Amino acid sequence: MNTLQQLIGENGFWLQQSEHAVLLVHGLTGTPAEMKHYGKQIARKGLSVVCPVLAGHCASVQELSRTRWQAWFTSIETVFLEMRKHYKSVFVSGLSMGALIALLVAAKHGKDVAGVVLLSATFVYDGWNIPLFKQRFLLPLVLYSPLRYVMQWEETAPYGIKCERTRAMVAAVLENKDARTSEKIGYFKTPATVIYQSVKLIRAARKQLPQVTCPVLIVHSTEDDMASLKNAYLVEKEIASKHVETFYIGDTYHVVTLDKRKDDIARRSAEFCLSVINA
C-alpha cells in the first residue's frame, strides 16, 4: 500500500483496522488535524481510516489560492480509487466543504461508495455568525469583481467551535502568528479567490445531488454558526438515496469534529457505517 501512503501526504493520517474503511475529507482551508480525533474514535470501532491532505492545503496561502475546486476533488478521488483496490468497502465522510466533495465522489462512483457521512454540509453560508449584509450584498460584490484578487476574509471567534477550552487554544495559536501552524490547524484568513472556487464547488455538488444513491448519514448542528440546518434539509430533499439517516445535534457549532459533541458524532458515524456493512 505504498502508493496510498504517498497519496495521503505528510500531514495526513492512516489508521489500519479492517477490510472496511472510511475516507475522511477535511474542510476548506482546514487540515487533517481537524479530523484526527474523529478518525481515531471511528478506528476504535474497528474501521480503517484514511485522511489525506486536500490539494493546495498544508502549505502556503499563496499555493492554496492557485488551486481550483477540481483539484480539491481530484486529490480525494485519487485516494478513493486507490483505497478501493485494498478494502472490501469504502465510505466517505467529509466536513463542511469536504462533505460536498464526498457527495461528488458518491455521485460519480455510484455503488463503489459504500456510504456517505456528511458533517456540517455547507451549500449556503447562512449561520447565525454570518451577517446578512455579508451574505446578500458584500460577498457577491467581491466575488464577481476584480476585488476577489485582492481581498480576503478573516475568520473571527467563535471559529466554528462552542467549546470554550478548544476555542481558547485556537485563539492562542493565532496570537503566535506562526506561519508554520497553518500545517496543523489551517488558515483563518481565506482569500476571496478561494471562496470563489468554493462557490463553484457548491454549484457542482448541488447539481449532482440527484445522482447520489448510496446510504447517507446527515450530521448537522442545530446551533451551527456558519451553515444553518437549512443546508441539511436541502440535502434531504434533493438527494436520490432511499437510505437517508439524520443526526441533528445541539451543544456544538460548525466544526463538529473538534467541538463538545465530537465523541457522540464519531460514535454515530461509526454505527452508521457498521450497520450498512452488516445489512
TrEMBL record:
Keywords: Hydrolase. Residues 17-260 form the Serine aminopeptidase S33 domain. GO terms for molecular function: hydrolase activity. The keyword Transport does not apply. InterPro entries: AB_hydrolase_fold, Esterase_lipase, Hydrolase_4, MAG_DAG_Lipase. The keyword Hydrolase applies. This is Alpha/beta hydrolase. The lineage of its organism: Bacteria, Pseudomonadati, Pseudomonadota, Betaproteobacteria, Nitrosomonadales. It comes from the Bacteria.
